[in-house]
Amino acid sequence: MKSHKLSQVLTHKNLKAATLFSQSHLCSFFSSTLQSNTTQQTQTLSPKILTNIPPEITHELLHSYIQSSQWHFIEHLAPNLTPSLIKTTLLNLHKTPELALKFTTHIGFRHVFDIKTRCLAIAVISRLPSPKPTLQLLKETLSSGIASIRGVFEELALARDELGTKSSILYDFLIRASCELKRSDDAFECFNIMKEKGFVPKIETYNDMLSLCSRLNSTERAWVLYAEMLKMRITSSVYTYNIMINLLCKERKLKKAEEFIGFMESLGVKPNVVTYSTIIHGYCLKGRIEGAQMVLNIMESRGVEPNSYTYSSFISGMCKEGRLEEATEVFGKMKDNELVPSAVTYNILIDAYCNKGDLGMAFTYRDEMVKQGIVPTASTYNLLIHALFMEGKMGEADDMIKEMGEKGIRLDSIT
C-alpha cells in the first residue's frame, strides 16, 4: 500500500526529476531508494527532495541524449554541465557540426560557455556549409566583451589546433564578424595578427574590410589596405574593383574611376552593371548628366544592360537639375524595359512634383506605386503632407496622417 502511494507521488509529482535520467539510471535510483529507506522515510519523502537530486552526468549519457535529439533532457541538464564535460562533448561532435550547433543552442551559448569553450564550439560549428551560425556566435562573443579581439583570436587558434584543422577560415570569419559589427579597429587588428602568423586572408575578407572602410568613409585606410593587397599579390575580384571605384566617386575623382575600368579590363576582369552604375551615380550626384549619359552609352555598347539603380540615378540627377520632363521620360523607359521601380525612385519623382507644385502628378505616382504593390514609406507620406501643408490644405494633410496610422506606418520627427 505504501509502495503504491510512493508510486503515485513519483508518477504525478516528479516528472521533471524523472526526465533527468535514462531508464537504467531511474531503475537503479528507485530500487536503491526503496531498499535503503525505512517505512517512515518512505512516507515523508518529498517531491522537492527528489527533484533536487542531481543525476550522474557522463559524457556518454550526454552524447546519447544528443544523438537521440532529446533536447528537453539537455536543457534540464544544462545548469549541471561543467566546462570540461561540454568540451568533451563538443570534441565528440566535431564530425557532426549540425548536432554541435543544436547542443550549444539548447544549453545556452551565452550563459554556460566560457571563452575557451565558446571558441571550441565556434571551431566545430564552422565546419557547417553555411557560415551564418559561425558568424552569429562570433558576433555574440565579440559583443559580450568576454575577451579582446586578440584573446578571441588566440583561443580560436588553440581550438583549431585541438581539432587538427589546417584551414585558416576561422580567422577570416572573425574579421568578417568584426566588419558586420562595424568594428574596423578589431578587423584590422585581426588582419595584422593573421599576417604576423603567416596566414593570408581570402579575397572575400579583403572585400569585407574594404567595404566597411567605404561605408565608414575611411578612404585613406581603404587605399592603404588595397596597396597591401597589391603587395601581397592578392588577385582582386570584380567586387573589389567596384568598391574602389565607389571610393573614387566619393572622392569626386570621376575620371580616375573611369580609368579604373580600363585597369580592370587590362587584368582580364570584366566590368559589370554595378561598375558602370556606380560611376553613373557619381556623375549624377555632381549634376553632370551628360557625363553619366556617356558612361551609359559605353555600358550599353559593351552589352551590359542597365538596372533599376542605373535609371534611378539618372532620375534623381535630372530632378535635382530641374529637368523633370527628361526624368519622367527615363522613368517611362525604365518601365518599358520591365524594371520595377523602388519606393525610393517613386519618392524622388513625388518630391520633384511636390516642389513644382503639381500635387496632382505627385498623388498619381503615389497611386501608381500602390498598384504596383510597392508600399509607400514614411518618406512618401512626409513629402505629400508637407506639400499639402504648404498649400494650406490642412484637412487633407490631417487625413494623410490618419492614413499613416491606419497602415501601421510610424510617424517620425519629420512628420
Please supply descriptive tags for the structure shown above:
415 residues, mainly alpha, disordered N terminus
Pattern of helices and strands: HHHHHHHHHHHHHHHHHHHHHHHHHHH
Give the total of beta strands.
Answer: 0
Assign an overall shape.
globular
Number of helices: 27
Q: What is the typical, i.e. mean, pLDDT? A: 86
**Which percent band covers the strand fraction?**
under 5%
Quaternary organisation of the protein chains: single chain
Poorly predicted tracts of residues: 1-54
Helix content: over 70%
How large is the radius of gyration?
Answer: 32 Å
Main sheet summary = none
Cα-to-Cα separation, first versus last residue: 76 Å
Instruction: Please identify the structural class as seen in this structure.
Output: mainly alpha
Tell me what the structure shows.
By secondary structure, the chain is mostly helical. It has helices at residues 2-13, 15-18, 23-36, 39-44, 47-52, 59-67, 71-77, 83-92, 97-107, 109-112, 115-125, 132-144, 149-163, 169-180, 184-196, 203-215, 219-231, 238-250, 254-266, 273-285, 289-301, 308-320, 324-336, 343-356, 359-371, 378-390, 394-406. The N and C termini lie far apart (76 Å). Residues 1-54 have low confidence and may be disordered.
Quick structural overview:
The chain is 73% helix and 0% strand.
